[in-house]
Amino acid sequence: MPTYKIRGIDVDFPYEAYDSQIVYMDKVLQSLQQKCNALLESPTGTGKTLCLLCATLAWRKSLGSFITGASLKISDKLDGKTELFTLSPSEESGRSTIVYTSRTHSQIRQVIRELKRTSYRPKMIVLGSREQLCIHDQVKKLRGKTQTNACRVLCRRRGKLQCEHFSKVSGYLKSNPHLGDEPVDIEDLVSIGTRFGPCPYYLSKELHKVVDIVFAPYNYLIDRGYRKSLQLSWNNSILIFDEAHNLESICADAASFDLPSWLLTACISEAETCIDLSIKRRDKSNDKSHNPDDFAILKALLLKLEKRISEVPIGSKEFGFTKPGAYIYELLADLNITYKTASKLRDTIAEASTLIEEHNQQKSSDTICRLDSIGEILDNIFRDGRTDHAKYYRVHVQEVESWAANGSKGKVVSRTLSWWCFNPGIAMEEFPKLGVGSIILTSGTLSPMESFAEELKLNFPFRLENPHVITPSQIWAGVVPVGPSGRTFNSSYRTRDSLEYKQELGNAIVNLARIVPDGLLVFFPSYYLLDQSIGCWKSSSNDNSISIWERICKHKKPVIEPRESSLFASSIKDYISNLKDTSTSGAVFFAVCRGKVSEGLDFADHAGRAVVVTGLPFATSTDPKVRLKREYLDKQPRAQGETLKALTGDEWYNQQASRAVNQAVGRVIRHRHDYGAIIFCDERFAQPHRQSQVSRWIQPHIKCFSRFGEVVFTLTRFFRDGKTQCLTKLSLLEPKKEENPEEMSSSGQHLDKFYLEKLVSPRIAPVAPDCSLKASSSLDTKKRWTSFLGEIVPANRSSLASDNCKIVGCESSRGTCNTVLHGRKTILSQERSMVDLTENSQPAEKSTDMLIARCSSKKRRFISGDYDLKQHIGNSLEHSSGGREQQCKDDITSQSKSLEFNRPEGNLPADCAPFTVSGDETQGSAFLAQVREKLSAAEYIDFVGYMKALKTKAMKIGEILQCISRLFSGPERLPLLRRFKDYIPAKYHSLYEQYTAEKN
Length: 1000
Known about the structure:
By secondary structure, this protein is an alpha/beta fold. The chain is built from 37 helices and 28 strands.
């Protein structure tokens, strides 16, 4: 493993680092050493996450050794008041906790997977919600506040009535202090709880107090309630916000609230319910624990608030009613709600919430208590007893018409009281006060960066806009100002509704659908323009000829992004299905900037060969929140000598549109060996100031075209250029040891799997200099380790035959197995990234003896089924042992779950040579079954990779044994660690024992 000396710190990196990765790690270390904040942009595929982890953990290691279970002091007094784990005073004083956050748990799962690639093993834990971690038979079925209250009630009980999983936490941690020494994810914690009994939620909550690094979603730091519940040592701690491109809006939303009339009505109804319930309890069982008078006061206050909001004078529906943020205190003071009385009111709301939850549990209802939202609003308004933060707010009351619930009364008018925060930095300002050492914000798309520092009101001395690791021939970026007929593209308000504009745009899409192979993404500025354009394209022209929509469908099957979130999953599945359809040359996804498609999906390789941006996605200027935000920024004082440049309303408005564009175009070119086109179909993108706000790694490649014909010509040449295609020639396995896979784990994630937050990473097809292949993914009905690779055929359907790229396939009634012969070398397909050993497996002259078997498959494509050890190794054995035929066995199927081997040895497969084994012929198969049971799917694939590396001598045996010992470390895997020695030649026993001694 290479080691780099950066700013005096040795950084272990799993691969040979690129220059851009060295620069990125240098910025991270500079920020940590000088205790300053950093704003770092690095495109997807440049190894951002891996660099961030290695640099941060190397810095942390330079301060002292990582915490381990052996270094923890375990208390014998487990009464709930004494800390279970403690550190020595010297360790506690010098400790710097790293808090690594990202948007979703799916992204955190990817980060932990990257952590396993490194040599660093800090004490770690991942935090999650009860919905993800609870294993109690009844509580895990609940949601939201209902689940939280039910959990707390069960945990507060004593004796047999207490939650059995909660009661086992301290005992398990006391006997397993090494939990977290090796990377664990949420699924691992749930598995521990299921097998051994302790509550995963409280395991993580207890362990997070004494770790080196904590992984959590954003809201654990941004939300005040979550943050206060964390028992972390904030002094000199490091806060990392990965995928931080949405951080400013998340911070602002977390500090704001909206109170619609329907919610206020529901709260009044719940207060009335509490009055009735408390009276019934008093009458039936003389239960006086709940005073109905308190709930009556609560109801009266809510009724007065409803009346007060209804009396607010609204001059026009467009502008509503707006006041400075401090007006909220005047409004509540009229109801006698002040900082002093708000405390009593919050207690009453908490009591009412408990009463309603108990009532809902008796009725077996999981209805959410709406009164909790009132308590959260009061906490937000009266936090810390201060009112000075109100200057960052605006009070707004807007009136809307909607249909009555029963439909009989026609339209009704409802009002919403809003308290909007226009300073996102209000959520971040507490971190410097807590003594946090450094705050690092990083993402693949942060440009334009200036607004981040200005919006968050933090000083970021260290900033970086990293280039991509791709070559110029892998990207086509151009501004297309005119269409096929020469009409100008401009999606502004003045021209977007004209028939000529929509028809010209449609004709351009027809041409692009014909040129671009596989997946094409088309982003519109808004749903309105998307609907209007498609509606126009579907209508026939005056001469009743074929419509634009039908012409698009001739080349690519279309999918339209739905407005409803519930329909999004089906649209992704439709897109995946259309990509696999061989009757057309791919699929086209019509979506909107700021929509779900533009925000988190990974359209790598065939899934997104080009992205079209049809205009600048400006927010609706008449939207009250947008209008008030611009006014707020324009009215901010411009004091001289300020470190941060003041942001004007217009600058913010333009930068928000540019950031949405950057997010959309970031869907393609997801890794080093990917390639694609970025097409800006709006003349405004030709303006220098517009291009300056595009991600910096794209800017050097942007060309402005004066004629649409030039676009067609250059794009066609780009996609048909054999040299460009050859840039995807890396093997289906992980790159060779000296190569860097960047963040290949995200390079080919199945889109339909993304919806389920179960992302898989298919590899890219190898392409010979004169042979083009296309990758198209599919989801197996039973397994997730599936990828389909076929030919890349541009819309003109040109023939792409080649003698240097041959497909070997064999079909049976039960399954399919295929091998790609590239340059007369066998390349195996595999979903996970593994070391590419094909170049080192045997001399080139020996491979000339390979024969290509005849196949019943008529299509020239490569299919890799479910990852199965037997399939992976069985297919390779025929060549590695010098055989002259590719054997096809009916018992090898993509859905096979068997781990038995139909070979005389009956033990570890030949890929595990030079291992030896003696004894029963099923011994090896039984051991592999244990390995697969104990390891995760990703770890199991890594294990197979080490076996193959050992066979081909691509890695030193010492390195492999060290990796295996690390893979089998942990109390649950100790039997594997010991048994594996039986399969090692005697001369390597002492070497293996050196590594295992550290794990026992």
